[in-house]
Design a protein that fits this description.
Elements (H helix, E strand, L loop, with lengths): L4 H14 L4 E6 L4 H11 L8 H4 L1 H4 L11 E8 L17 E2 L8 H19 L6 E4 L7 H7 L4 E2 L5 E2 L7 E8 L18 H5 L5 E3 L2 E2 L5 H7 L6 H4 L5 E3 L3 H4 L26 H5 L3 H7 L9 H16 L5 H6 L6 H27 L2
Parallel strand pairs: 3-10
Antiparallel strand pairs: 1-2, 2-7, 4-7, 5-6, 8-9
The structure holds cobalamin and iron/sulfur cluster (2 copies).
Cobalamin binds next to helix 2, helix 6, strand 7, strand 9 and helix 8.
Length: about 350
């Protein structure tokens, strides 16, 4: 049978839906302005310590360097908007915040199996006439850019990809292939005059519309950064212990977002508003057990303890003081230093509260 790009695309779309992807589209590999913007972003050093982003910038901006003769990028989206509170809603002072995307199982594993199945299906229905590579997050590919051109949504001022119907709480998975397919139309930018995300970001990481300085982003600081968190930013990080959702939680496009019933993404016990005391007491065995196959394992126990100390310092909750004090004697110097900072912060805020109470007596 003659190769029919429209029929292949339609079959792929049906298969993607059957695999549980809510969103599907295809972008033609082409030179688009965002590729230049990426190079400018790297040039300004906004990737911070994520050096791999500069190292493979050539590949990231040219899919043909990843797949010889690349013609298309197939993009699928999977909703993780589980029913539970927002980070912007009130919570007890003793609670931290784990980002919504990390409440359940690791999306890399969940999506990789499905995008692999979609790729294998493409090879099967084309009788092995095409080749390609598939990725979830970790490949040298600008997923949001191709997702936008594949019609899945627009890149918002908070730099997340937003879909008009399901908001921005969805993951992306992509296939770069030399197959010729039929292409989707990118949707318009629907941010309009809104600036809620920029105004709400506590660390001013969104330095202008559509531009994020990763070095200031709480998501980067709590997940990607391996060493000490700059002191100038600690006080602005609130009680975030893994990732940050603020610029999405305030986005009007997430207000009516459909709820995901995917079992793998449902919150594991204790992950929504996690107890800071419990995190501060964690030993390696508890960490490995609790965060097995969870995105949180990325920070390692060391990173999570560091983050929990910053959160405890910002909590103003005197009940955490004894645990924070104990960590001043931790064998790891970085933990010791963050514990000292947290003790100082907690003591000052508790003292200030007491003084305030006398004033109002
Ligand atoms: C590096 C990275 C990060 C970094 C940098 C974030 C970022 N904005 O890029 C950090 C660690 C901070 C991060 C955080 C998060 N991430 Co992340 N991350 C990535 C990764 C690996 C690469 C992204 C990238 O290439 N960034 C490069 C910069 C330059 O891109 P950009 O900021 O979007 O800039 C583009 C546009 O804004 C535009 N542009 C730039 N300047 C200008 C100026 C003007 C005027 C205009 C019009 C446009 C424009 O062009 C730029 C180039 O493409 C992707 C996976 C992948 N391989 O693509 C996941 C990915 C983007 N992350 C994801 C997620 C879920 C998150 C978090 C929500 C996790 C969390 N809750 O903590 C946060 C969101 C923070 C935020 N506001 O973006 C999802 C996003 C899904 C979605 N719906 O958007 C992805 C796609 C992973 C996946 N497979 O699902 N992430
Ligand atoms: S994820 Fe948090 S810190 Fe990062 S840009 Fe959004 S609001 Fe700011
Ligand atoms: S909060 Fe407003 S400006 Fe920011 S991404 Fe959402 S719609 Fe766009």
């Amino acid at each position: 049978m003659a190769y029919d790009p429209a029929l292949i695309t339609q079959k792929l779309q049906e298969k993607a839906r059957a695999l549980g992807f809510e969103l599907f589209g295809v972008a033609a590999v082409q030179d688009v302005p965002e590729l230049l913007r990426y190079r400018e972003w790297i040039g300004a050093g906004y990737e911070a310590e994520m050096h791999y982003m500069a190292r493979n910038a050539e590949k990231r901006t040219d899919p043909a360097l990843v797949v010889n003769g690349a013609q298309s990028v197939i993009v699928c989206g999977k909703n993780y908007h589980t029913r539970a509170p927002l980070s912007t809603e009130p919570a007890p002072a003793s609670a931290g915040w784990i980002s919504r995307y990390a409440w359940g199982d690791d999306y890399h594993d969940v999506l990789k199996q499905r995008i692999r199945a979609l790729y294998e299906y493409l090879v099967e229905i084309t009788d092995g006439a095409v080749q390609g590579r598939y990725y979830v997050d970790t490949g040298p590919v600008l997923e949001k850019v191709w997702a936008q051109y594949a019609g899945l949504g627009w890149i918002g001022k908070n730099t997340c990809l937003i879909n008009q119907h399901i908001g921005s709480y969805f993951f992306l998975a992509v296939i770069i292939t030399d197959a010729k397919l039929t292409y989707s139309t990118p949707p318009p930018d629907r941010c309009g005059t809104c600036t809620r995300c920029i105004d709400a970001c506590p660390t001013e990481a969104i330095i202008g519309p559509y531009v994020l300085d990763a070095a200031k982003c709480i998501s980067y600081l709590t997940i990607e950064l391996r060493d000490r968190i700059p002191e100038s930013l600690r006080g602005k990080m609130g009680r975030h212990v893994f990732g940050c959702d603020i610029c999405q939680d305030v986005c009007p496009w997430n207000r009516k977002a459909a709820v995901s019933l995917e079992p793998a993404f449902q919150p594991r016990p204790g992950n929504v508003n996690p107890d800071l005391g419990e995190l501060l007491r964690m030993e390696q065995a508890d960490f490995s057990e609790r965060f097995r196959k969870s995105p949180v394992k990325r920070s390692k126990l060391r990173g999570l303890l560091r983050n929990a100390l910053v959160a405890a310092g910002n909590s103003g909750h005197p009940g955490l003081l004894s645990q924070v004090e104990a960590l001043q004697h931790h064998p790891d110097e970085m933990i010791q230093e963050h514990a000292k900072w947290a003790v100082e912060k907690l003591t000052t805020s508790t003292k200030a509260k007491k003084e305030d109470a006398y004033v109002h007596d």
